[in-house]
Amino acid sequence: MGKVISVSNHKGGVGKTTSTLNIGAALSLDPKINKVLLIDFDPQGNLSRSLGITDLEFTIYGNLRGDYPIKPIEITKKLHLIPANEDLAASEIELSSETGREFFLKDLLENLRGNYDYILIDCPPSLGLLTVNALTASDEVYIPVKTEFLPVTGLKTLTDVIERLKKRINKNLKIGGIICTQFNMRRTLDKEVVDIIDQQFKDKVFETKIRNNVSLAEAPSVGKHIFTYSSASAGAEDYLNLTKEILARNQ
Ligand SMILES: Nc1ncnc2c1ncn2[C@@H]1O[C@H](COP(=O)(O)OP(=O)(O)OP(=O)(O)O)[C@@H](O)[C@H]1O
Ligand SMILES: [Mg+2]
Does pLDDT of 153 surpass 80? Predict the structure, then answer.
């Protein structure tokens, strides 16, 4: 039974998509892992675009509507994607009047879970119904945090939502980890922010910090993850180490 992990933070630009993509890729490259599924659950469609998938005929939006069954795209034999585009924005409104509106994604994944070791969901930068569906479908949530002051102050809103969801809808949901991203070790501020995050989330915080690395920002523009774009980059090193931690936590 695969583990379902949402990558979520309502703050924009903190590294959700970059982390989903490169953790997913690193997991798929591990010999112990059979298959990984990535779900683009953001109407911006950045995860799909980052893998060079545009011009979409079948998306998660159509799956949520029940227009056609799920048929993941094989990026590689071990790395699959359910893509999204701006159509998905309509789901926030369309689902809102449905009974059991929080459970649509969970129900869709029920039959897929057996096929994958890991299912990673790239959430949009909001706490609306799409994010609630992702968190309802998940065993764990990973929270990427950019190591600057403002994103840290917003974390309480997210953890409150997670707590409420745990009480009412998904009692098994856990914060699986905090990922410090776009870390600049030469800046005092970044280190201070990491200290604050450590105090608040203790051993939930992954030891590996994802450094600022231009290759991570360049790779999506050519439709590649970091391990095919620049396997010797600091970005590749960091996401590989982070994924080792993830595998160790899940042993
Ligand atoms: N470690 C890093 N070093 C350099 N650039 C990065 C790094 N991580 C992410 N970026 C860049 O920062 C921008 C935001 O990252 P990303 O798209 O992953 O964030 P996001 O949280 O998914 O954003 P959104 O909220 O819009 O979905 C992107 O241009 C990305 O390429
Ligand atoms: Mg994103």
Answer: no
